[in-house]
Amino acid sequence: MRLTKFTHACVRIERDGAVLVIDPGTFTESAALDGVDAVLISHEHVDHLDLDKLADALGKRPSVTVYTHPDVVPKLAALDGVVTAVTSGEDFSAAGFAIRAYGGWHARIHADIPSVANLGFLVEESIYHPGDSFDIPEGAQVETLFVPVSGPWLKLSESVDFVRAIAPRRAYALHDCLLSEAGHMVTDGNMKRLSKCEYARLSAGQTVEA
């Protein structure tokens, strides 16, 4: 499988011509959706869900399917007929990839901010994208973890502990465009030193093999 990290929270996974994209949001380059077959949306926040980008992708490829939490489905009413609701613990197939959904709620930002639904997605029992959560995919042996490293809902120690709890072979930074260059230096340095696995921050559009 080929993994391509796009700006902030979007990951593109390719295998044998099939294309799966997770969380194409407002910060995501449009190229992430080129030739896409299926899209997974972890939650409704605009940095993970850009309705205009999805509509444009569907205009080019009407066969595209979208999978997300039932609470997010009403937000996608304009894409009627292509959206499938999935729940935590559910196994399903998207673009030929085996997926299992985990979690259920976005990490808490503040008591005064209402919580929203969030799903983490385990792809082919080896690649895990948690959306905006630190929900652990219990029972899974994750090879490649995308770990959130910035945002109003986390601190660095939580990111480190999340990686340690899952113990993947390697981890890549996710939810990372909110930091300055100085912030990246501090975060990357600590994550590399403390995560106890291979860690890196991929640049936008960078591809690795899984």
CATH topology: Metallo-beta-lactamase, Chain A
What global shape is seen? globular
Q: Based on DSSP secondary structure assignment, what is the total number of beta strands?
A: 14
Output the structural class: alpha/beta
CATH architecture title: 4-Layer Sandwich
In short:
The chain is of the alpha/beta class. The protein is built from 3 helices and 14 strands. It has a single domain, classed as Metallo-beta-lactamase, Chain A, CATH 3.60.15.
Task: Please describe what this structure looks like.
- By secondary structure, the protein is an alpha/beta fold.
- It has a single domain (2-209), classed as Ribonuclease Z/Hydroxyacylglutathione hydrolase-like (Metallo-beta-lactamase, Chain A, 4-Layer Sandwich), CATH 3.60.15.
- It contains three helices and 14 strands.
- It has helices at residues 51-60, 156-166, 181-194; strands at 2-5, 11-15, 18-22, 38-41, 65-68, 83-85, 91-94, 97-105, 117-123, 127-129, 144-148, 170-174, 198-200, 206-209.
- Strands 6-5-4-3-2-1-14 form a seven-stranded mixed β-sheet, with no helix packed on it. A seven-stranded mixed β-sheet has the order 7-8-9-10-11-12-13, covered by helices on one side.
- The longest helix has 14 residues, at 181-194.
- The chain is globular.
